[in-house]
Design brief:
two-stranded antiparallel sheet; 5-stranded mixed beta sheet; 63% helix; Helix Hairpins; 371 residues; alpha+beta; Heat Shock Protein 90
Length: 371
Protein backbone atom coordinates (compact mmCIF):
# COMPACT_ATOMS: atom_id res chain seq x y z
CA UNK A 1 0.00 0.00 0.00
CA UNK A 2 1.33 3.43 -0.97
CA UNK A 3 1.63 5.88 1.92
CA UNK A 4 0.24 9.38 1.60
CA UNK A 5 2.63 12.28 1.17
CA UNK A 6 2.35 13.60 4.77
CA UNK A 7 3.19 10.16 6.15
CA UNK A 8 6.14 9.80 3.76
CA UNK A 9 7.47 13.24 4.70
CA UNK A 10 7.14 12.50 8.42
CA UNK A 11 8.78 9.07 8.14
CA UNK A 12 11.63 10.51 6.09
CA UNK A 13 12.37 13.05 8.84
CA UNK A 14 12.18 10.32 11.51
CA UNK A 15 14.49 8.07 9.48
CA UNK A 16 17.06 10.85 9.24
CA UNK A 17 16.87 11.42 13.00
CA UNK A 18 17.21 7.69 13.78
CA UNK A 19 20.19 7.37 11.45
CA UNK A 20 21.86 10.35 13.08
CA UNK A 21 21.16 9.08 16.60
CA UNK A 22 22.42 5.58 15.78
CA UNK A 23 25.61 7.01 14.30
CA UNK A 24 26.16 9.18 17.36
CA UNK A 25 25.55 6.18 19.69
CA UNK A 26 27.92 3.88 17.83
CA UNK A 27 30.64 6.48 17.57
CA UNK A 28 30.40 7.46 21.21
CA UNK A 29 30.22 3.82 22.35
CA UNK A 30 33.39 2.89 20.47
CA UNK A 31 35.49 5.93 21.31
CA UNK A 32 34.42 6.82 24.86
CA UNK A 33 36.02 3.79 26.68
CA UNK A 34 39.37 4.35 25.01
CA UNK A 35 39.30 8.05 25.72
CA UNK A 36 38.30 7.25 29.31
CA UNK A 37 41.26 4.88 29.75
CA UNK A 38 43.64 7.46 28.35
CA UNK A 39 42.27 10.16 30.64
CA UNK A 40 42.46 7.89 33.70
CA UNK A 41 46.02 6.91 32.95
CA UNK A 42 47.01 10.56 32.71
CA UNK A 43 45.31 11.36 36.00
CA UNK A 44 47.03 8.41 37.78
CA UNK A 45 50.39 9.17 36.21
CA UNK A 46 50.53 5.75 34.57
CA UNK A 47 51.51 4.75 31.09
CA UNK A 48 49.17 2.95 28.77
CA UNK A 49 50.96 -0.31 29.53
CA UNK A 50 50.55 0.17 33.27
CA UNK A 51 46.86 0.88 32.76
CA UNK A 52 46.53 -2.28 30.69
CA UNK A 53 48.09 -4.27 33.49
CA UNK A 54 45.75 -2.57 35.94
CA UNK A 55 42.87 -3.43 33.70
CA UNK A 56 43.11 -6.99 34.84
CA UNK A 57 42.39 -6.07 38.41
CA UNK A 58 38.88 -6.18 39.83
CA UNK A 59 39.00 -2.51 40.75
CA UNK A 60 39.79 -1.41 37.19
CA UNK A 61 37.17 -3.67 35.75
CA UNK A 62 34.58 -2.31 38.18
CA UNK A 63 35.43 1.28 37.24
CA UNK A 64 35.24 0.49 33.56
CA UNK A 65 31.98 -1.43 33.91
CA UNK A 66 30.42 1.41 35.90
CA UNK A 67 31.54 3.94 33.33
CA UNK A 68 30.22 1.86 30.41
CA UNK A 69 26.90 1.29 32.13
CA UNK A 70 26.40 4.97 32.92
CA UNK A 71 27.50 5.90 29.39
CA UNK A 72 25.00 3.51 27.81
CA UNK A 73 22.21 4.78 30.04
CA UNK A 74 22.98 8.39 29.26
CA UNK A 75 23.13 7.67 25.53
CA UNK A 76 19.82 5.83 25.54
CA UNK A 77 18.11 8.60 27.49
CA UNK A 78 19.64 11.20 25.17
CA UNK A 79 18.49 9.27 22.10
CA UNK A 80 14.97 8.95 23.47
CA UNK A 81 14.75 12.67 24.21
CA UNK A 82 16.24 13.50 20.79
CA UNK A 83 13.73 11.25 19.05
CA UNK A 84 10.82 12.84 20.89
CA UNK A 85 11.96 16.37 20.11
CA UNK A 86 12.87 15.54 16.51
CA UNK A 87 9.58 13.68 15.99
CA UNK A 88 7.60 16.68 17.21
CA UNK A 89 9.64 19.02 15.04
CA UNK A 90 9.16 16.73 12.03
CA UNK A 91 5.42 16.71 12.64
CA UNK A 92 5.30 20.52 12.75
CA UNK A 93 7.42 20.86 9.61
CA UNK A 94 5.31 18.29 7.77
CA UNK A 95 2.09 20.09 8.68
CA UNK A 96 3.55 23.42 7.64
CA UNK A 97 4.62 22.02 4.27
CA UNK A 98 1.29 20.33 3.71
CA UNK A 99 -0.85 23.38 4.47
CA UNK A 100 -0.07 25.25 1.21
CA UNK A 101 -0.30 22.01 -0.76
CA UNK A 102 -3.73 21.39 0.75
CA UNK A 103 -4.76 24.94 -0.13
CA UNK A 104 -3.61 24.41 -3.72
CA UNK A 105 -5.52 21.15 -3.89
CA UNK A 106 -8.71 22.78 -2.62
CA UNK A 107 -8.27 25.65 -5.08
CA UNK A 108 -7.81 23.34 -8.07
CA UNK A 109 -10.98 21.47 -7.11
CA UNK A 110 -12.95 24.71 -6.89
CA UNK A 111 -11.50 25.91 -10.19
CA UNK A 112 -12.45 22.59 -11.79
CA UNK A 113 -15.99 23.19 -10.52
CA UNK A 114 -16.07 26.56 -12.29
CA UNK A 115 -15.22 28.87 -9.38
CA UNK A 116 -12.61 30.81 -11.38
CA UNK A 117 -12.49 33.70 -8.89
CA UNK A 118 -11.06 31.46 -6.16
CA UNK A 119 -7.45 32.33 -5.24
CA UNK A 120 -4.77 30.55 -3.23
CA UNK A 121 -3.14 32.58 -0.41
CA UNK A 122 0.58 32.99 -1.06
CA UNK A 123 2.68 31.18 1.60
CA UNK A 124 6.02 32.52 2.84
CA UNK A 125 8.10 29.75 1.27
CA UNK A 126 9.29 30.96 -2.18
CA UNK A 127 8.79 27.62 -3.92
CA UNK A 128 5.29 27.11 -2.55
CA UNK A 129 4.46 30.76 -3.29
CA UNK A 130 5.51 30.23 -6.91
CA UNK A 131 3.24 27.18 -7.14
CA UNK A 132 0.32 29.11 -5.64
CA UNK A 133 0.95 32.03 -8.00
CA UNK A 134 0.87 29.67 -10.99
CA UNK A 135 -2.47 28.25 -9.84
CA UNK A 136 -3.85 31.78 -9.41
CA UNK A 137 -2.66 32.70 -12.90
CA UNK A 138 -4.35 29.60 -14.27
CA UNK A 139 -7.60 30.57 -12.55
CA UNK A 140 -7.39 34.11 -13.92
CA UNK A 141 -6.78 32.86 -17.46
CA UNK A 142 -9.68 30.42 -17.21
CA UNK A 143 -11.91 33.23 -15.91
CA UNK A 144 -10.93 35.41 -18.85
CA UNK A 145 -11.59 32.55 -21.27
CA UNK A 146 -15.01 31.96 -19.74
CA UNK A 147 -15.81 35.66 -20.02
CA UNK A 148 -14.79 35.66 -23.68
CA UNK A 149 -16.90 32.56 -24.33
CA UNK A 150 -19.93 34.15 -22.66
CA UNK A 151 -19.41 37.38 -24.55
CA UNK A 152 -19.02 35.46 -27.81
CA UNK A 153 -22.38 33.74 -27.29
CA UNK A 154 -23.99 37.10 -26.63
CA UNK A 155 -22.33 38.64 -29.68
CA UNK A 156 -23.41 35.78 -31.93
CA UNK A 157 -26.97 36.03 -30.64
CA UNK A 158 -26.93 39.78 -31.27
CA UNK A 159 -25.57 39.38 -34.80
CA UNK A 160 -28.17 36.74 -35.65
CA UNK A 161 -31.09 38.61 -34.11
CA UNK A 162 -31.32 41.33 -36.78
CA UNK A 163 -31.47 39.12 -39.89
CA UNK A 164 -33.75 36.62 -38.16
CA UNK A 165 -36.10 39.42 -37.11
CA UNK A 166 -36.12 40.74 -40.65
CA UNK A 167 -36.82 37.31 -42.10
CA UNK A 168 -39.58 36.74 -39.56
CA UNK A 169 -41.17 40.07 -40.46
CA UNK A 170 -41.14 39.37 -44.17
CA UNK A 171 -42.54 35.85 -43.74
CA UNK A 172 -45.34 37.05 -41.43
CA UNK A 173 -46.04 39.88 -43.85
CA UNK A 174 -46.41 37.45 -46.74
CA UNK A 175 -48.64 35.19 -44.63
CA UNK A 176 -50.85 38.15 -43.72
CA UNK A 177 -50.87 39.41 -47.31
CA UNK A 178 -48.97 42.59 -46.48
CA UNK A 179 -46.10 41.55 -48.76
CA UNK A 180 -46.39 39.67 -51.98
CA UNK A 181 -43.74 37.11 -52.96
CA UNK A 182 -42.46 39.31 -55.76
CA UNK A 183 -38.78 39.49 -56.84
CA UNK A 184 -38.08 42.52 -54.63
CA UNK A 185 -39.34 40.78 -51.49
CA UNK A 186 -37.53 37.57 -52.35
CA UNK A 187 -34.32 39.54 -52.97
CA UNK A 188 -34.63 41.08 -49.51
CA UNK A 189 -35.11 37.62 -47.99
CA UNK A 190 -32.13 36.31 -49.94
CA UNK A 191 -29.95 39.18 -48.70
CA UNK A 192 -30.73 38.36 -45.08
CA UNK A 193 -30.11 34.67 -45.67
CA UNK A 194 -26.76 35.51 -47.22
CA UNK A 195 -25.97 37.62 -44.19
CA UNK A 196 -26.63 34.64 -41.95
CA UNK A 197 -24.53 32.42 -44.21
CA UNK A 198 -21.68 34.96 -44.12
CA UNK A 199 -21.91 35.04 -40.32
CA UNK A 200 -21.73 31.24 -40.16
CA UNK A 201 -18.71 31.23 -42.50
CA UNK A 202 -16.98 33.92 -40.46
CA UNK A 203 -17.60 32.06 -37.20
CA UNK A 204 -16.18 28.89 -38.71
CA UNK A 205 -13.11 30.77 -39.93
CA UNK A 206 -12.74 32.42 -36.54
CA UNK A 207 -12.88 29.07 -34.78
CA UNK A 208 -10.16 27.65 -37.03
CA UNK A 209 -8.09 30.78 -36.56
CA UNK A 210 -8.19 30.82 -32.77
CA UNK A 211 -7.52 27.10 -32.56
CA UNK A 212 -4.57 27.54 -34.93
CA UNK A 213 -6.06 25.00 -37.35
CA UNK A 214 -4.97 26.85 -40.48
CA UNK A 215 -3.89 24.60 -43.30
CA UNK A 216 -1.16 26.93 -44.48
CA UNK A 217 0.26 26.24 -47.93
CA UNK A 218 3.57 28.03 -47.67
CA UNK A 219 5.55 28.85 -50.75
CA UNK A 220 7.87 31.51 -52.18
CA UNK A 221 5.68 34.56 -52.79
CA UNK A 222 6.35 38.04 -54.11
CA UNK A 223 4.59 40.20 -51.54
CA UNK A 224 4.74 43.29 -53.75
CA UNK A 225 2.92 41.50 -56.57
CA UNK A 226 0.41 40.13 -54.05
CA UNK A 227 -0.36 43.61 -52.69
CA UNK A 228 -0.70 45.12 -56.15
CA UNK A 229 -3.10 42.36 -57.22
CA UNK A 230 -5.28 42.93 -54.13
CA UNK A 231 -5.27 46.68 -54.72
CA UNK A 232 -6.22 46.24 -58.38
CA UNK A 233 -9.10 43.96 -57.44
CA UNK A 234 -10.46 46.53 -54.92
CA UNK A 235 -9.81 49.59 -57.08
CA UNK A 236 -13.43 49.78 -58.41
CA UNK A 237 -14.78 49.96 -54.84
CA UNK A 238 -12.37 52.79 -54.03
CA UNK A 239 -13.46 54.59 -57.17
CA UNK A 240 -17.12 54.23 -56.21
CA UNK A 241 -16.34 55.57 -52.73
CA UNK A 242 -14.33 58.46 -54.18
CA UNK A 243 -11.29 57.44 -52.14
CA UNK A 244 -7.83 57.55 -53.69
CA UNK A 245 -5.84 54.33 -53.35
CA UNK A 246 -2.06 54.77 -53.45
CA UNK A 247 0.18 51.73 -53.86
CA UNK A 248 3.84 52.22 -52.98
CA UNK A 249 6.55 51.35 -55.47
CA UNK A 250 8.93 48.79 -54.03
CA UNK A 251 11.15 46.16 -55.66
CA UNK A 252 10.08 42.56 -55.30
CA UNK A 253 10.04 41.25 -51.73
CA UNK A 254 9.92 37.48 -51.54
CA UNK A 255 8.90 35.47 -48.50
CA UNK A 256 7.63 31.99 -47.73
CA UNK A 257 3.92 32.55 -46.97
CA UNK A 258 0.48 31.25 -47.86
CA UNK A 259 -0.49 33.70 -50.63
CA UNK A 260 -4.24 33.11 -50.25
CA UNK A 261 -4.18 33.81 -46.51
CA UNK A 262 -2.00 36.90 -46.82
CA UNK A 263 -4.24 38.15 -49.63
CA UNK A 264 -7.17 37.68 -47.23
CA UNK A 265 -5.41 39.85 -44.64
CA UNK A 266 -4.47 42.59 -47.12
CA UNK A 267 -7.99 42.63 -48.57
CA UNK A 268 -9.47 42.98 -45.09
CA UNK A 269 -7.13 45.84 -44.19
CA UNK A 270 -7.88 47.71 -47.42
CA UNK A 271 -11.62 47.14 -47.01
CA UNK A 272 -11.57 48.46 -43.45
CA UNK A 273 -9.56 51.49 -44.55
CA UNK A 274 -12.14 52.21 -47.26
CA UNK A 275 -14.98 51.99 -44.73
CA UNK A 276 -13.19 54.40 -42.38
CA UNK A 277 -12.24 56.99 -45.02
CA UNK A 278 -14.72 59.66 -46.22
CA UNK A 279 -15.03 60.67 -49.89
CA UNK A 280 -12.07 62.70 -50.98
CA UNK A 281 -9.71 60.89 -48.60
CA UNK A 282 -6.89 58.54 -49.43
CA UNK A 283 -5.53 55.15 -48.44
CA UNK A 284 -1.87 54.22 -48.89
CA UNK A 285 -0.41 50.73 -48.89
CA UNK A 286 3.30 50.11 -49.12
CA UNK A 287 5.89 47.46 -48.29
CA UNK A 288 9.20 47.82 -46.49
CA UNK A 289 11.65 45.13 -45.53
CA UNK A 290 14.95 44.39 -43.87
CA UNK A 291 17.02 41.23 -43.57
CA UNK A 292 14.53 39.53 -41.22
CA UNK A 293 11.03 40.92 -41.83
CA UNK A 294 8.73 42.37 -44.45
CA UNK A 295 6.26 45.05 -43.34
CA UNK A 296 2.99 45.77 -45.16
CA UNK A 297 1.55 49.06 -43.95
CA UNK A 298 -2.00 50.29 -44.71
CA UNK A 299 -2.54 53.94 -43.77
CA UNK A 300 -5.68 56.05 -44.15
CA UNK A 301 -6.69 59.60 -43.25
CA UNK A 302 -10.17 58.66 -42.10
CA UNK A 303 -12.07 58.71 -38.83
CA UNK A 304 -9.16 57.45 -36.73
CA UNK A 305 -9.22 55.52 -33.47
CA UNK A 306 -9.23 56.61 -29.85
CA UNK A 307 -7.34 54.85 -27.07
CA UNK A 308 -10.21 52.45 -26.30
CA UNK A 309 -10.60 51.51 -29.96
CA UNK A 310 -6.88 50.72 -30.21
CA UNK A 311 -7.18 48.13 -27.45
CA UNK A 312 -10.44 46.59 -28.72
CA UNK A 313 -10.25 46.81 -32.49
CA UNK A 314 -9.06 43.18 -32.78
CA UNK A 315 -11.86 41.83 -30.58
CA UNK A 316 -14.60 39.69 -32.12
CA UNK A 317 -17.62 41.60 -33.44
CA UNK A 318 -16.19 44.94 -32.31
CA UNK A 319 -16.82 47.80 -34.71
CA UNK A 320 -15.14 51.12 -34.10
CA UNK A 321 -17.66 53.98 -34.10
CA UNK A 322 -17.66 56.73 -36.73
CA UNK A 323 -17.21 54.66 -39.90
CA UNK A 324 -18.26 56.61 -42.99
CA UNK A 325 -19.73 53.51 -44.64
CA UNK A 326 -21.47 50.41 -43.35
CA UNK A 327 -19.33 47.32 -43.47
CA UNK A 328 -20.86 44.16 -44.87
CA UNK A 329 -18.72 41.99 -42.64
CA UNK A 330 -19.65 40.45 -39.31
CA UNK A 331 -16.89 42.14 -37.33
CA UNK A 332 -14.43 39.25 -37.06
CA UNK A 333 -12.21 40.06 -40.02
CA UNK A 334 -9.46 41.75 -38.01
CA UNK A 335 -9.52 38.97 -35.42
CA UNK A 336 -8.97 36.39 -38.15
CA UNK A 337 -6.36 38.57 -39.85
CA UNK A 338 -4.30 38.80 -36.67
CA UNK A 339 -4.46 35.04 -36.14
CA UNK A 340 -3.28 34.50 -39.73
CA UNK A 341 -0.33 36.79 -39.04
CA UNK A 342 0.49 34.86 -35.85
CA UNK A 343 0.25 31.56 -37.73
CA UNK A 344 2.97 32.86 -40.09
CA UNK A 345 5.16 33.86 -37.16
CA UNK A 346 4.37 37.54 -37.68
CA UNK A 347 2.15 40.19 -36.14
CA UNK A 348 -0.62 42.66 -36.93
CA UNK A 349 -0.74 45.95 -35.02
CA UNK A 350 -2.58 49.25 -35.23
CA UNK A 351 -1.73 52.84 -34.37
CA UNK A 352 -3.61 56.13 -34.52
CA UNK A 353 -3.06 59.64 -33.25
CA UNK A 354 -6.73 59.96 -32.34
CA UNK A 355 -10.16 60.62 -33.81
CA UNK A 356 -10.18 62.19 -37.27
CA UNK A 357 -6.43 61.53 -37.49
CA UNK A 358 -6.56 58.33 -39.52
CA UNK A 359 -5.15 54.93 -38.60
CA UNK A 360 -2.26 52.72 -39.65
CA UNK A 361 -2.36 48.91 -39.66
CA UNK A 362 1.01 47.18 -39.86
CA UNK A 363 1.40 43.56 -40.95
CA UNK A 364 4.85 42.14 -40.18
CA UNK A 365 5.94 38.85 -41.73
CA UNK A 366 9.28 37.06 -41.36
CA UNK A 367 11.32 36.66 -44.51
CA UNK A 368 12.44 33.06 -44.63
CA UNK A 369 15.40 32.10 -46.74
CA UNK A 370 14.58 29.92 -49.69
CA UNK A 371 16.64 26.78 -50.14
Amino acid sequence: MTLRLPARLYLSYVAVVIAGAATAFATTRLLAPRLFEAQMSMMAGMTSGDWSMMGGSANAQSVRAAYTSSLNGALLIGMAVALLIAGGAALLVTRRLMQPLTAVRQATRRIADGEYLWRVPLPREPEMAALAADVNTLAANLAATEQRRTRLLGDVAHEMRTPLTTLDGYVEGMIDGVFSPDPATLDALTAELRRLQRLADDLSALSRAQEQRFDLKLGPTDLVALVRAAATRLAPQFDDGQVRLVVGTTPAVRASVDPDRITQVVTNLLGNALVATPPGGSVTIDIQHDAQNATIRVQDNGVGLNAEDLTRVFERFYRAPGATRRSKGSGVGLTIAREIAHAHGGSLTVSSEGLAQGATFTLTLPIQSEH
